[in-house]
Amino acid sequence: MRRAGRRAFGGLARDISARRRTEEALLKSEQKFRLIVENIRDIYFRCDLEENLVLVSRSALRKLGYESFDEIIGHPVSSLCVDPSQQDRYLQTLRAQGSVDDFWIRIRKKDGTPVDGSVSSSFCSDEHGNPVGMEGIIRDITERMRMEEKLRRSEERYRLTADNIRDLIWTMDIRMNLTYMSPSMMTLYGYTPEDEDDHGPLRRVRGRGERGGRSREVRRGLERLVPL
After folding, report:
1. Model pTM?
2. Which of 135, 141, 147, 146 is nearest to 117 (CA)?
């Protein structure tokens, strides 16, 4: 354009300091998030509304035996589930409650090996609050499940022994409340374990005059964890 017979230039300047600060904050947030996702030991995942995986942490490759993200990204999350009915229950709970915490599910590695997992997840939304998918964490609890099963079998074995032994076996808590009495009580004393009250076995197997002192002795033994 010309002004006073001379060529001139015009322009418009706009203060974008606030926008730059917002962009920098967003960049730092994304970098922090990516750092967490790249180094997390559990499996982080994000799916779209069609339940296709759009993002997984690097730990997913290590734990599930995949070599690249291309083998997982874009595939339905159901491809990782061993039992489809488990996934159905998980999705039903998620849709009903909006989030799921410590939901047991069995997933498979690339070679088909099953892995017991604990899933905690929720729906994720865009900046307008519209749901765009779901995200969550899968924790490998295979070892925990193995130990729980081992403990369960051990308890069953010892309970079978206690239930069939002729001697009387009983357990009580620190308040001397009966927690277990073997069925041999019926043979020895003529009543069932269900007949026992909350005062413990000493109430019936000991005489009235001896019961008080013996109870105090038992209580001291329980507190000190020493044999009686």
Report:
1. 0.57
2. 141
